[in-house]
Specification:
The structure holds two protein chains of two kinds. Chain A has one domain: MetI-like fold. By secondary structure, chain A is mainly α. Chain A is 72% helix and 0% strand. Chain A starts with a helix and ends with a helix. Chain A is globular, with a radius of gyration of 23 Å. In chain A, α2 packs across α12, α3 runs antiparallel to α9 and α11 runs antiparallel to α12. Chain B is globular. Chain B is 77% helix and 0% strand. Chain B folds into two domains: 57 residues, no CATH class; 169 residues, MetI-like fold. Chain B is mainly α. The chains are: A mainly alpha, B mainly alpha. At the A-B interface, α1, α3, α4, α5 and α7 of A face α1, α2, α5, α7 and α8 of B.
Chain lengths: 290, 288
Amino acid sequence: MPWVGFVPGIGIFTVFVLGPAIAIAVVSLTNLSGTPNVPWEWVGLDNYRRFFLGQWDDNARVLMRTLQFVLVLSVVQSAIALGIAVLLNGRLRGRTIVRSLVFLPTVLGVVVIALTFSLFFQPNRGPAASIVESFGVSTAFFGDPNISFALVIGVQMWTGMGYAMMILLAGLQTIPGELYEAARCDGAGAWTRFRHVTWPMIAPAITVNTLIAIIGSMQTYQLIYVLTGGRFETSVLALEVFTEAFGGDGSGGGSTRQGYAAALSMLQFFLVLIVSMVALRFLRRREVQL
Amino acid sequence: MTTIQLRARANARANRRRTGSRLGRTGAYVVLVLTALVWLVPLLYLVNTAFKSQDEFLADPTGLASTVSLDSFVQAWQTGGFSTYVLNSIGYVLLSATVMVVLSLLIAFPIARRYIRWSDAWYRLFVISMFLPNALVTQFQLILWLGLYDTRIAYVLLMTAGFGLGPFLITGYLRSVPTDLDEAAGMDGCGYFRYLFTIIAPLAKPVLVTVFIFQAINVWNDIIIATVVLADPARFPISRGLFAFFGTYGNQSAQLAAATLMVAAPLVLLYAALQKHIVAGAIGGALK
């Protein structure tokens, strides 16, 4: 009986998720296109060769951006989230409201968030434009290649901050209050208490949070897709996978290169694996040292 | 759970005894207010714009809405064809979230109880699935091959099959439900499915509700799977519809803000009502 109930769920999971994920490796060796009924052939490692030898300059920029994206959204975001979490863990009026507010974007969809910020950063009209214009500066914001990637990262942080903050807050709340009491009796100031009580005790939560941030930020592209479509120097590897496979305008047809997209997907998979392994080793060593 | 709560309470008590310097407290409040503003201002601007007419917006984009005008909502709803999208999404949400919760329970229970072979391996499989390569290309090809491209069933299938953390969270919860009940039920000759859905399901209600809400939010917010398998706007779910509206009427800022707010409103209300469930579910996976 348990098997009878188990099979349908595992069945659709295997057929529609697990199978396709494994088949990506096979498709990455073909020149499959997104147009139905177009013949395809095996091309060996051509797709991978094309990535590294074809337009390497463009691809290197995408890879650099991907690493910047991951670095900022794991390290900088975690640091800010820890700051907010420590602040909200104290006894301040209105802290529950602020906590709810920062976490709110977790439930909002990428389209809602992207359109909210498109309006806010609307060139010439939006509030951001009137602020920078008062300094005599004019910019197209998301349409300005010099700053659009930084803005995209900012919006991504705005979206993910609440989640990181909640994990760290949960970690902070497991630290026994007696430890702070003891530290206070020894005459420890606020910074010393943070450095010698909070910081070592919060290490496991930071490990979890940073790993989730690394994996999440390497796989996410939906927000960039809606904000800029990858134009204005904002594309990252995960978005390249999507736009190569289904086109930037989302029409699905046209000259989509799904074999090449599958190869990019595999490269992304290995990159996620390597970066998270390195990060895990680093974080575990740090945990032990403390 | 209770020990954590106790500790949290003890912490709160300890914190209350804390008497930070006055300067430190003022600084803390300044940072608190700044943080709130960063998250609040973009949303308030959205709300403010939504309640303007396009003319009023063009005359003074950043000024406060002079009247509460619902014109932009009405116009956006009609020109964008949002009634179709809303109905589609309600259907997709209910179907996908219900099926996903039922299938997740059917998967999670035997894993939690080790009633099937390789329970641990199955359990890990759902965690590993988060790290697998992006499979949109092969999912799209599979749907084409099955002749299901641009059908509602393809959309619901792909949305539901991405179980995410559902089975994982339910398994974790069921491990805390005592097994004595299983044995008693077995002696009574109570059927497996009847037992699972009439005895276990009510006991696991909090986690089932959490998983349902998460899947509902997921489906309401999805644009990617909709872009990959649906071509006809008549079948679009709401977020995909909003994106299409942005593509066509992107310069109508007031209507765009109104449409965005309409899509966001149910989520904000749900969040306001069920915040505890949502927070617990969101970070539950991370803490295990």
